[in-house]
Amino acid sequence: RAALELRPPGDRDRSSTLDELNLCLSTRYDKLGIVADLEEAIEFGRAALKLLTRSHSSRGASLHNLACNLRKRFVKRAAIQDLEEAIELLRSALELRPTEHPDRSSSLCELAFCLSHRYDKHRVVEDLEEAVTLGHEALEL
Prior knowledge:
CATH superfamily: Tetratricopeptide repeat domain
Number of strands: 0
Shape: globular
Structural class: mainly alpha
CATH architecture: Alpha Horseshoe
Strand content: under 5%
Largest sheet: none
Protein name: Anaphase-promoting complex subunit 5
Helix content: over 70%
Number of domains: 1
Number of helices: 7
Order of helices and strands: HHHHHHH
């Protein structure tokens, strides 16, 4: 938080500081289960993403991290819009993470988790089939 204060709006490194804060809060949520940490992580993740151009090298990671937090919030609150947004963000992240990208498999797995959750909610077989396909692709990588 102190580092963020040193990177005012317009600072070229502000997005990376927002993303780091996002990751710290998300990790703390994982350890302690404090929902306010997850809410704040999502807020900082959204702010970081807004600062990144479509071609920025960190955009794929930022999309992935925000999607992970939205999936966590879906698990906590069962708000389908969080899951739908996470799926959309992960599809965008995968566009930025081609087959040779070292983090592609993690985005494939996360998208498979999200599709599996959506299948559990709506019982659309195509979601389950795609989740299985993505899981296989992740294993191949």
